[in-house]
Write the structure tokens for this entry.
Amino acid sequence: MRIRPETKNDFDNIYNFIKATFETAKVKDGHEQDFINNTRYSDKYIPELALIAEKNNEIIGYIMISKTYVEKNDKKFEVLYLAPVSVLLEYRNQGIASKLINESFKLAKKLGFKSVFLAGDPTYYNRFGFVPTINHDIKCSIPVPEELYKNIMVCELVPDALKGISGIVKM
Ligand SMILES: CC(C)(COP(=O)(O)OP(=O)(O)OC[C@H]1O[C@@H](n2cnc3c(N)ncnc32)[C@H](O)[C@@H]1OP(=O)(O)O)[C@@H](O)C(=O)NCCC(=O)NCCS
């Protein structure tokens, strides 16, 4: 298996891959593939952080990390947003998503980014160092019931990345 950044030639295959792999997702909105397309044509897109895992020229995993921000009192602080990460059904539970997450975080750090936000299951994302954003006094731009606050998470790529940062994260 190798991990590499996506190129234009991959876009159609990624669209179909995401659509298919999210059919078996626990949580989905059904528009994950459109979110990726829209992100590519926005200033949130970071081509180096849209990665494919491939084996024998087939896409078996994908991750996109894009730009977003935490806002407070009209001040915006740039951060990253992980969505989506996805693995072909028959390749799950072999550590492929973990490799995509670790590789993209390594690259993100090299690019100078300091924190990554996401909405997801804490039992999975805790292992990468994600904690609820509420621990940092950061709430989500989308209304979330209090019992799901724990699912809005952030991972500091460098120690104290969020020191002094609070407000609303745009998701
Ligand atoms: C979530 C997903 C990306 C994990 O990929 P993977 O390559 O199987 O992940 P890894 O091999 O790195 O990790 C497997 C672990 O994740 C756990 N896991 C998988 N999906 C999970 C989920 N939705 N919630 C909580 N835990 C999950 C597995 O139980 C396993 O746990 P264990 O290591 O304690 O046994 C994959 O299941 C997938 O593509 N799902 C459909 C799309 C999706 O839901 N994406 C996440 C939201 S953006």
